[in-house]
Amino acid sequence: MTATFTDGIADLLDARHIERTEEIPTDPDPGNYVVIDVLHFSTTVVELLANGASYVHVTEERGEEFAFRADKPEARIGGGSTATYEPAEGYDFFNSPSYVQGVDVSGRPVSMTSSNGGRALWSLRAADADVDVYVGTTTNAAAVAERLRGDDRPTYLVSAGSKGEEATEDHVGAVLLARYLAGEPPADVERQVFRDVLEVAKGHDYVDKHEVRRRDVQNYAMAIDSRSVVPHLVGDRLVDVSGEATLGPAVGDPASD
User: Fold this and answer.
1) Quick one: pLDDT band at residue 7, thresholds 50, 70, 90?
2) Which of 42, 99, 131, 224 has a CB 3.0–4.6 Å from the CB of 37, allowing a cystine?
3) What are the C-alpha distances in Å from 238 to residues 45, 133, 197, 218?
């Protein structure tokens, strides 16, 4: 029987979907791995690079960003947040795609991590395996897929999860990537369903917690395919490779919003 686009999506979401950081193999198969932490590490990384950061250095442990800035005084560093959604003492920002809009990162290196997406990156980086690691989210799903689709090596989708549990928003990102990788972009009505799910993925009252979190979800995570940034892990740094030649044939223009 001839394979169909649907067969490709099923394969990606079955055989090649890792549902939590804790399920990343210690000896992963060779291939491309896309770390998806929609709320909020992946989406924040994409915004930092889109706003001109020269690269995003990912620390293994929070707190190591200060040593990075001591070596590179021009750097901006991200850490935890306070109860009023300001950066923790000593930091310039926290994991928030909306907050970083007010941080001058143009031409500067940035250092940050997170307990989910950042940890997933380090788990893959530490593995003695032939892997290439990318960062994906809802805002750059089409761009990442365009770069990876058609590569001879398989692509694995890594939903980072949250506190050891599966995260709905990361699975939405994985489904979007699978659709584009299989050459079957979602229809407008499907994209709206994805947005609706993202808005309540962390609970119906999450967007009411604070104006920052409302913007993070509604203005960024829900802005499907709004960015062309493709973060690729080189050593301990994420760099945007969207301007480089693709690894396979283009997916085609995604459905417009």
Assistant:
1) low
2) 42
3) 8, 9, 28, 25
Q: So what's the pLDDT on residue 209?
A: 94
* Identity of the amino acid at 169: E
Distance, in Å, from the CA atom of 235 to the CA atom of 122, rounded to the nearest integer, reads 10
Find, among 178, 177, 173, the residue nearest to 194 by Cα.
173
> CA separation (Å) from 243 to 53, 134, 162, 254?
15, 15, 32, 18
- Say how many domains are in the chain: 1
Dihedral sign for Cα atoms in the order 139, 145, 148, 153: positive
Q: pTM score, two decimals?
A: 0.91
Across 215-223, average pLDDT: 98
Domain that holds residue 37: 5-52+114-240
Give the CATH number for residue 204: 3.90.1560.10
Could you say which DSSP state residue 150 is in? T
pLDDT, tens only, 181-211: 999 999 999 999 999 999 999 999 999 999 9
- Determine, yes or no, domain membership for 85: no
Instruction: Report the helix count and the strand count for the chain, using DSSP H and E.
Output: 8, 10
- Indicate whether 161 pLDDT > 60: yes
- Residue 53 phi/psi, 5-degree rounding, is -55, 140
